[in-house]
Amino acid sequence: MATQAQVITCKVSLVIEEVEVAPPQAGEVRVKVLFTALCHTDAYTWSGKDPEGLFPCILGHEAAGIVESVGEGVTEVQPGDHVIPCYQAECKECKFCKSGKTNLCGKVRLATGVGVMLNDRQSRFSINGKPIYHFMGTSTFSQYTVVHDVSVAKIDPKAPLDKVCLLGCGVPTGLGAVWNTAKVEPGSIVAVFGLGTVGLAVAEGAKAAGASRIIGIDIDSKKFDRAKSFGVTEFINPKDHEKPIQQVIVDLTDGGVDYSFECIGNVSVMRAALECCHKGWGTSVIVGVAASGQEISTRPFQLVTGRVWKGTAFGGFKSRSQVPWLVDKYMKKEIKVDEYVTHNMTLADINKAFDLMHDGGCLRVVLDMHI
Ligand SMILES: NC(=O)c1ccc[n+]([C@@H]2O[C@H](COP(=O)([O-])OP(=O)(O)OC[C@H]3O[C@@H](n4cnc5c(N)ncnc54)[C@H](O)[C@@H]3O)[C@@H](O)[C@H]2O)c1
Ligand SMILES: N[C@@H](CCC(=O)N[C@@H](CSCO)C(=O)NCC(=O)O)C(=O)O
Ligand SMILES: [Zn+2]
Ligand SMILES: [Zn+2]
């Protein structure tokens, strides 16, 4: 086909470049990133569908490392501390942090949303004097990064960093969606849409909360076997049914589920997840991130008749307070983490790692940043 005068769609790679990382300023921490995993939100922003996506930038937000140096006034971490960068900050002082109602923090969010540090609204990354933007206040696809002190959790130095890096995003998000946002009670019937890392962590959290049935829904039936070991008790592939998936679930559950979780980022599935909830009390939690311009819809009657629609960011966990607690739970073998790591690679292979995310067998790829 002739392509002259046409827009061409083609593949591009992330590039690995030498970057200058400026010293941390007041209230900032420079971290040597040892291991980082890839999350679908990195792929989402790279795709250009994130309205906050700003390029050129350094992506990455699910990582663990060691503090290299700290700026003036930083008291809660020091060089040598083992840390997890937290894209969701916790300053403990702002209106949000003090509300007792949310884990969102307002202190640095406006700066991190536009790829800069709060102090001087500049980036600490540059190439030949030209700034490279930060991403989600973390930018962990770099061997060194600079984060705000409110965006870093100090953790047990005995914890294996090549595993607990996952506690920077996907696993806490799923667990917390169940424990903090939905507050699933023992005996509940739960539906999980999407059986990737986040959906499996929802299943794990629901099992721990004592759910009686955990129904996993995915369009890839290969996901089902593995999901059993995370707590899923029944499986549905929407492709095997002619009826809308919400009707299939309502029929199977005597009127609908107590809780549902959308872990895909698809607005049609978000609607189905709400509408498969039981009249009068069923609650649906949106976890997946949908692209810019996408909107959710349903008949208001669904809410009038008692269903509740919620969303969650980082599973409602307060990052600096609770990430160390999650690390301790992992060390006591009370939550899974190793089981979500399906591949280990190096920074040099980051493009292959992104390709692997489309492979049904892949959950998390962990990159060793210094080989
Ligand atoms: N809210 C938050 O704080 C937060 C944190 C982390 C990730 N996320 C988002 O959560 C979502 C899930 O992340 P993940 O890493 O588990 O992704 P993933 O791609 O590994 O998992 C998604 C799963 O959904 C399945 N799927 C796709 N379309 C489907 C459909 N129409 N019906 C049923 N199943 C379908 C896929 O087969 C896959 O198993 C992403 O959108 C990610 O950006 C949100
Ligand atoms: N810039 C994106 C926001 C996407 C989004 O909702 N991010 C989640 C975390 S995804 C982690 O993998 C989140 O926590 N949001 C709350 C926040 O960003 O403060 C967009 O605009 O689509
Ligand atoms: Zn993420
Ligand atoms: Zn705050």
From TrEMBL:
Domain of life according to the entry: Eukaryota
Cofactor(s), names only, from the UniProt record: Zn(2+)
GO BP terms, alphabetized: formaldehyde catabolic process
Membrane-spanning intervals of the chain: none
Keywords from the named record: Cytoplasm, Metal-binding, NAD, Oxidoreductase, Zinc
Residues in Alcohol dehydrogenase-like C-terminal domain copies: 198-325
GO molecular function: alcohol dehydrogenase (NAD+) activity; S-(hydroxymethyl)glutathione dehydrogenase [NAD(P)+] activity; zinc ion binding
Cellular component per GO, a single term: cytosol
EC code(s) of this entry: 1.1.1.284
Compartments where located: Cytoplasm
Start and end residues of each Alcohol dehydrogenase-like N-terminal domain: 26-155
Reactions catalysed, as given in the entry: a primary alcohol + NAD(+) = an aldehyde + NADH + H(+); S-(hydroxymethyl)glutathione + NAD(+) = S-formylglutathione + NADH + H(+); S-(hydroxymethyl)glutathione + NADP(+) = S-formylglutathione + NADPH + H(+); a secondary alcohol + NAD(+) = a ketone + NADH + H(+)
Quaternary state and interactors: Homodimer.
Family: Belongs to the zinc-containing alcohol dehydrogenase family. Class-III subfamily.
PANTHER family, per database record: ALCOHOL DEHYDROGENASE, ALCOHOL DEHYDROGENASE CLASS-3
Full protein name: S-(hydroxymethyl)glutathione dehydrogenase
Organism encoding this protein: Sesamum indicum
Gene coding for it: LOC105163593
